[in-house]
Amino acid sequence: MPDASNKHRTATRLAHTGRNPNVHDGFVNTPVYRGSTIIHPDMETLESGNMPVTYGRRGSPLVQGLEASIAELEGGARTVMMPSGLAAISNILLACVETGDHILVTDSAYKPTRILCDGLLKRLGVETEYYDPLVGENIASLIRDNTRLVFAESPGSQTFEIQDLPAISAAAHARDVLVIVDNTWASPLYFKPFDHGADISIQAATKYIVGHSDAMLGSVTINAAHADRITAELHKLGNCAGTEEVYLGQRGMRTIDVRLERHWKNGLEVASWLEKRDDVVRVLHPALPSHPQHDLWKRDFLGASGLFSVLLPEVPKPAIAAMLDHMSLFGMGYSWGGFESLAVPFNPSSYRTATPWTHPGVCLRLHIGLEDPVDLIADLDAGFERMKAAA
Ligand SMILES: *Cc1c(COP(=O)(O)O)cnc(C)c1O
Questions:
Q1: Of 109, 144, 166, 273, which residue is most buried, by most CB within 10 angstroms?
Q2: For residues 97 and 79, is the Cβ–Cβ distance under 8 A?
Q3: CA 31, CA 208: separation in Å to the nearest integer?
Q4: Cα-trace Rg, the chain
Q5: Ligand 1: distance of its center to the CA of 205 in Å?
């Protein structure tokens, strides 16, 4: 791959990394390679394995291009593409743990991460302990002799706590414990996990990297110290991302900075408007000065994406349905990061175990898309009116 050099700024690198028109008859984009078999030119090459790719499962110039782009942007040494964000999480955990291990997972983790820890990992004899996302350097007191890794997610899924990753990493590394972070919210653009102590970062590339709600994709990025060993473990598990999906991920990377800037701006505009309403209890958005860890966000993050939560007053369920069932622009759906706005109700009290969730009402997780925020605000305003009328 030509010129992934750091002499250019991010926007420039996004447009140019991971592609080489010279070897594709001048075509700007790397084509979709369909392939399982790679033909070796002679026995010597076959025996040495000295080919860019030796088997379809290991990728193609297209896959390697996207891996190079994500590794460069996140600041890791090596990226391995996965068929989904959850596959990235399950594969990295399986690659790192063994029977008898203890792992520390943030209480604010994406719910399927918990399901994996409480099910498959438990069955394999790995003990998960959930920790307060605001634990900071006090994670040290939870580390045991058999603690293998700390899993962070910042901000937390749905509840948006910002974690002090440098403090957590320093304490973990003092005991030779790995730090893995789910960096999906910020994308590789707005949080640089390896500058803040992470050893490994995962992305649900399904979200902002693909960016158009049309493909499932994940990535695992590893620092130089662990890249060879962990990449080899991941390869043994046999997962590989689909070639069309990788193409869509690579295409998404070309515009991710432009899209995210708009998600950030639109999201803040809607969040600020929501915060002023008397029928909103609280808005959980790290870029709002009212957010309890706003200072940490300012210290460590380079921007904000379009996802945040709103705590609603205690109203009967039909009043929430009156609001959500008749939105004209906001859809009700779980995967976010596309161009469209979404609203889903949630209540974390059933799955927090280390820290209580005390808000008695329903919460809404909003994804603010690329629509004009004036129209989004009007849609929400009408929704709040329906909620009030039905309460
Ligand atoms: C969506 C999501 C995932 C899972 O990604 P999929 O591609 O949907 O499997 C993991 N972590 C976070 C924080 C997510 O939002």
A1: 109
A2: no
A3: 22
A4: 22
A5: 8
For the record, the structure tokens of 94 come out as: 């399986």
Cα 54 to ligand 1 centre (Å): 30
One domain, residues 243 and 295: no
- Residues with catalytic function: 57, 110, 182, 207
pLDDT mean over 272-293: 97
Q: What is the pLDDT of residues 110-155, one digit of tens each?
A: 999 999 999 999 999 999 999 999 999 999 999 999 999 999 999 9
Shortest-distance atom of ligand 1 to CA 89: 10
Each residue's pLDDT tens digit, 331-389: 999 999 999 999 999 998 888 999 999 999 999 999 999 999 999 999 999 999 999 99
Domain containing 147 equals: 10-252
The average pLDDT across 56-76 equals 96
3-state helix, strand, coil in the chain (%, to 5): 40, 15, 45
Query: Quick check: 5 pLDDT over 90?
Result: no
What is the pTM (predicted TM-score) of this model? Answer: 0.97
Q: What does the chain come to in residues? A: 391
147-153 and 342-346 strand pairing: unpaired
Q: Separation of 192 CA from ligand 1 center, angstroms? A: 18
Residue pointed to by tokens 């029977």 = 99
* Gap from CA of 386 to ligand 1 centroid (Å): 31
Give, using CA atoms, the residue closest to atom 8 of ligand 1: 85
Residues lining ligand 1, CB < 6 A? 84-86, 110, 153, 157, 182, 184, 204, 206-207, 216, 218, 335
Residue matched to tokens 């210290």: 299
Q: What ligand 1 atom has the least distance to the C-alpha of 184?
A: 13
Residues 231 and 297 in one domain: no
225, 319: one domain: no
| Domain tally, the chain | 2
- Are 312 and 286 part of one and the same domain? yes
